[in-house]
């Protein structure tokens, strides 16, 4: 595939080639695309220039989270697996990190293991980050199979929303989910699989944030990372905005204490999706620029802010609602 | 879009009774109680809450309900995973037991040029080599040390003044390193020394093999010199100079110091702490008076000294807390070890705070003459004529005789504090230890009557003191959380 007619002229006659329209000029060498002649379209599957490419493995899920950014659908989408398997084979070996998301990827069962295996075989130097609710690992079999893959650099991101079962179950809208998730985490760690705990900061989770931090430090000290994350206002999160919204300036005390508890316990802790100006200064060193470039924006208030370089900025979806505390950090005079 | 269900629909606690998991309680102060679970987590409660909870009448809308549920004092229909987690935490606390014995103390000689009055073991300024460990004894002791299942073996040289027998230290280090090649253990060495005779050659040797130095520093010059008489009356000057030289040779953090509290120390805890700060140590271990010697001869171990010691300890602790509140980081090591048991899922390897007791399995002593003792205190006891805790002799007995013989197993069996009278219903049991040597020495049996035990009264006061301080001030709790994770 080439970007202009001039280059096309250089290609030997008879070779299969096509000229891309202007819309696709962001594509570069090493990217993987799928041509869909039936729809006369092209889908981008992997971009080499992007630090973190993620693959949605299924839209199905056994949770139904109040703030889900990718609302689940009960569809038969098994074909996705075949496509991802193909992409994995074509991808550039130098990719630093890729992600598997959903829906709930583990609902694919044996095919899920097959995908992790393929990622490890074709891309041995590429970190694999998988978002899962962890429930499928509770019985131990899937955790054992995943451990047996011995992927060289694997991390599972699993949400735990509260220390109290019913609060977690309410957030994910599934009875018994908390117990299964915790058992899943224990099973994964017993198999030597690395686990990151993800906590979304919202109206339902902030009141138990400090007890949750104590709970993690006491019961799950052996997990590999804890990420405390601001809301991304897409999907259900937007539909449920009034129900889940809490302004980050109103939870700084809880966040400071929770980060402190985890940090003092020697756990690795990060704050994702947060803006520098609303974070307590002592928390800024925990904040990561986690929003993917193509989703990241700044607001009119950010004009002249000296912290844009370190600040995570906003999801483009934040235009629906963002903190009243946004104000530029001016250079120390 | 399917309808979202409200939180109350997920909350089964309102519709079900709760089941209590094992817990114990005790008064904390005039108003409140402290309740603990088997893994050593605690919740403070009012008397009313204690009786509600115990009577099965606690309501889910009482705030303490969530705290008890979160910390696994109770389960209800919302969750069953609590039992798995509680079991995991208890296993984590007990796991280090399987690795018995990590610390192996070699008494290289009894000779010493100091003559400290509280020291039970050293022979002052004795030139006779009959108190030195022989190569034969060293080899047999190493055989035992390397039979230990522990993946990490620490060899500590003590005396007398351990460095007065450098040839045997060099011999043991070389031999241990040779065995490490095939034994695949993590090996660490410590030389305990008063630094008075430390020369550059010893330091160079220590540096070459990453050997840590542990020394004694009792406080300011007059106190230290009074506690530790030596010819020249300059023990303090020797120590301070030695610490500086050792730090230069080995690195600042590879030199540690311990203090011993004597009667003369009691009125001056602040200046003792100041001395440690002046010497640029990161903390201090306010060690209680040892009951061996004068205290023991009077059979009824008087509570008078005990009370004074606690005043000394808490005055020091509060001083250190104030320093931290002011932004100066400094820790008290005994508190830190207790706090580790209170605030983390982990365990401390400090022998006095282990249950079953740390004797023999937390540390073991190979005396210069080949007699194996269950602890340092056991050796002191033997010097006073009581050989109850002599486990055997490296020349006559094998690993099984020594580590599985009655001399060790009997006191160990009686030192599971969870099952002995007094401790089994004590709320502080998850944090406490058992001290069979102490109780044998002071009361004549391994268990002892706890109300008469100064070990017990001291620890109870300490546990209460630590909890009330962190409950009263969240900033103190944060400081304590830091300490709990340093040691
Ligand atoms: S003003 Fe904008 S760029 Fe600056 S810290 Fe706040 S959100 Fe970030
Ligand atoms: S020794 Fe005393 S404080 Fe310790 S567990 Fe026994 S009764 Fe409790």
UniProtKB/TrEMBL annotation, chain B:
Which superkingdom?
Bacteria
Q: Which residues form the Radical SAM core domain?
A: 97-329
What cofactor requirement does the entry state? [4Fe-4S] cluster
Q: Which Gene3D superfamilies match?
A: Aldolase class I
Q: Name one GO molecular function term.
A: iron-sulfur cluster binding
Q: Which keywords does this chain's UniProt record carry? A: Iron, Iron-sulfur, Metal-binding, Plasmid, S-adenosyl-L-methionine
Q: Which Pfam families does the entry mention?
A: Radical_SAM
* Sequence similarity: Belongs to the radical SAM superfamily. Anaerobic sulfatase-maturating enzyme family.
Name assigned to this protein:
His-Xaa-Ser system radical SAM maturase HxsB
The major lineage groups are: Bacteria, Pseudomonadati, Pseudomonadota, Alphaproteobacteria, Sphingomonadales
């Amino acid at each position: 595939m080439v970007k202009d007619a001039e280059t096309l002229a250089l290609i030997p006659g008879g070779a299969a080639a096509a000229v891309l329209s202007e819309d696709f000029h962001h594509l570069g060498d090493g990217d993987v695309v799928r041509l869909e002649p039936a729809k006369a379209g092209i889908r981008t599957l992997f971009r080499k220039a992007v630090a973190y490419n993620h693959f949605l493995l299924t839209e199905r899920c056994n949770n139904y989270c109040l703030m889900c950014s990718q609302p689940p659908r009960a569809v038969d989408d098994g074909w996705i697996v075949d496509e991802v398997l193909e992409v994995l084979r074509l991808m550039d070996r130098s990719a630093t990190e890729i992600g598997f998301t959903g829906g709930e990827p583990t609902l694919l069962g044996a095919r899920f293991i097959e995908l992790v295996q393929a990622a490890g075989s074709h891309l041995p130097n590429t970190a694999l980050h998988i978002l899962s609710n962890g429930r499928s690992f509770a019985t131990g079999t899937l955790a054992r199979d995943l451990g047996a893959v011995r992927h060289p650099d694997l991390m599972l991101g699993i949400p735990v929303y509260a220390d109290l079962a019913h609060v977690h179950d309410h957030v994910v809208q599934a009875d018994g989910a908390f117990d299964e998730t915790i058992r899943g985490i224990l099973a994964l760690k017993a198999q030597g699989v690395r686990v990151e705990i993800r906590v979304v900061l919202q109206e339902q989770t902030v009141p138990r944030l400090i007890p949750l931090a104590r709970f993690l430090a006491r019961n799950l000290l052996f997990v590999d990372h804890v990420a405390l994350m601001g809301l991304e206002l897409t999907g259900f999160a937007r539909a449920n905005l009034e129900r889940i919204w809490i302004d980050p300036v109103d939870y700084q005390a809880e966040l400071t204490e929770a980060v402190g508890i985890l940090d003092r316990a020697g756990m690795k802790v990060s704050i994702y999706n947060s803006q520098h100006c609303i974070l307590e200064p002592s928390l800024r060193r925990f904040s990561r620029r986690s929003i993917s470039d193509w989703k990241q924006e700044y607001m009119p208030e950010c004009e002249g802010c000296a912290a844009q370089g370190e600040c995570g900025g906003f999801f483009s979806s934040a235009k629906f609602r963002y903190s009243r505390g946004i104000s530029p950090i001016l250079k120390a005079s | 879009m399917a309808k979202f269900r409200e939180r109350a629909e997920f909350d089964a606690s309102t519709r079900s009774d709760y089941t209590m998991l094992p817990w114990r309680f005790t008064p904390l102060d005039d108003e409140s109680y402290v309740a603990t679970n088997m893994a050593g987590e605690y919740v403070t409660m009012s008397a009313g809450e204690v009786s509600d909870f115990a009577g099965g009448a606690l309501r889910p809308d009482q705030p303490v309900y969530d705290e008890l549920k979160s910390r696994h004092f109770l389960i209800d229909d919302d969750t069953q995973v609590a039992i798995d987690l509680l079991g995991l935490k208890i296993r984590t606390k007990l796991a280090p037991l399987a690795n018995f014995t990590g610390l192996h103390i070699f008494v290289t000689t009894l000779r010493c040029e100091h003559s400290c009055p509280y020291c039970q073991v050293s022979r002052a300024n004795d030139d006779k080599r009959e108190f030195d460990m022989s190569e034969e004894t060293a080899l047999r002791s190493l055989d035992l040390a390397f039979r230990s299942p522990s993946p990490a073996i620490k060899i500590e040289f003590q005396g007398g003044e351990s460095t007065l027998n450098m040839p045997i230290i060099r011999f043991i280090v070389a031999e241990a390193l040779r065995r490490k090649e095939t034994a695949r253990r993590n090996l660490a060495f410590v030389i305990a020394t008063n630094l008075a005779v430390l020369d550059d050659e010893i330091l160079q040797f220590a540096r070459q093999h990453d050997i840590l130095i542990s020394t004694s520093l009792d406080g300011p010059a007059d106190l230290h010199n009074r506690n530790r008489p030596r010819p020249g009356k300059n023990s303090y000057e020797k120590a301070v100079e030695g610490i500086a030289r050792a730090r230069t040779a080995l690195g600042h953090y590879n030199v540690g110091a311990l203090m011993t509290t004597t009667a003369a120390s009691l009125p001056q805890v602040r200046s003792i702490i100041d001395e440690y700060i002046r010497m640029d140590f990161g903390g201090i271990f306010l060690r209680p008076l040892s009951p061996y010697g004068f205290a023991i001869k009077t059979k009824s171990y008087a509570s008078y000294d005990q009370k004074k010691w606690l005043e000394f300890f808490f005055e020091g602790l509060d001083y250190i807390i104030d320093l931290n509140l002011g932004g100066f980081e400094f820790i008290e090591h005994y508190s830190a070890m207790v706090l580790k048991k209170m605030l983390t899922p982990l365990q401390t390897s400090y022998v006095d705070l282990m249950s079953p007791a740390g004797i023999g399995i937390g540390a073991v002593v190979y005396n210069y003459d080949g007699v194996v003792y269950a602890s340092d205190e056991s050796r002191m006891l033997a010097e006073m004529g009581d050989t109850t805790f002599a486990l055997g002799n490296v020349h006559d007995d094998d690993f099984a005789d020594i580590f599985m013989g009655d001399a060790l197993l009997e006191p160990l069996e009686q030192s599971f504090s969870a099952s002995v009278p007094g401790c089994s219903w004590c709320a502080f049991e998850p944090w406490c230890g058992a001290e069979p040597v102490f109780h044998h020495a002071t009361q004549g049996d391994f268990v002892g009557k706890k109300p008469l035990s100064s070990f017990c009264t001291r620890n109870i006061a300490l546990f209460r003191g630590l909890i009330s301080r962190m409950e009263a001030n969240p900033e103190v709790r944060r400081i304590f959380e830091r300490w709990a994770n340093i040691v």
